[in-house]
Amino acid sequence: MWRFTASVSCAAVAVFAFGGVARAQVSSQDVQERGARQQAQAVQDTEDRPGLLSGIGAGFAELFARERLQVYVNGSYQASSRQYETETSLRTYGEQARLSTREEFGGGGHVDVGGSLRVWRGLVLGASFTQVRDSGSAEVTGTVPHPIVAERDRTIPPQTPSLARRERGTHAYLAWRISLRSLEVELSAGPSYFSLRQGVVVNLTPTEVVGPPFAEVGLHVDLGEHTRSGVGYNAGIDVTYMFTAATRIPQVGIGYFVRVTGGTVSLPITADTRRRVAVGGVQTGAGLRLRF
Questions:
Q1: β-sheet bridge partners, residue 227
Q2: What mean pLDDT do residues 4-17 have?
Q3: CATH of domain 67-291
Q4: Which of 288, 258, 286, 80 is nearest to 167 (CA)?
């Protein structure tokens, strides 16, 4: 009997031992499978992150690729002609002195720099900056009453002071680019912002050149300078020829442009008087084109 009991006990111990080993093997396999899954997930996450960054980088590359960005510099000339006349009346020696001021400004050479970005198909957004310097002139003439003899006006010798002028323009524009075989044509238009610094005649004072019989009279001219800004418009055409192929960066080419700009700026003439001064003009020039 005791032998039978011992045999049963040994069999039970063997079954429990085998079950423990089996469970240990199953647990070990589960751990290995979970570890493999975690490692695969980590690899996938690591692969997904560069993919996301690559997508973002590709988006930026798409924005600036395919010959989208262009910069340029031109030697240019602005053709313009401005003339202003002002009549002044002064009470002198009990009568009226009548003075006339004629100011004249022309155009001038300048450098035109800017850039553009092709935003969609042939649609281009751009801006350029110009600064035109010109030396104008004023001519002051008139008559001054005699200090002793009534109704005997004397003529003032013409006074011709020089007047400085500096005109800065920032021209934003929207353009459409058309390809014509080896040439590209852009038609553009947009707003302009002008900053004008201009010399003006601010004060006129008659002076006696000699004493009796007071046959000659002179004039003292005071000059000033005003800086004001204003808005306007621009419209133009640009023709470009690229020397290098699209596969080379940057592409190099030359261009010629014609641009019409215009606007007005309000300048103070006296404490109570202001004058609307025209700015801008017809600009034309040629220069270098770099496309990225």
A1: 197
A2: 38
A3: 2.40.160
A4: 80
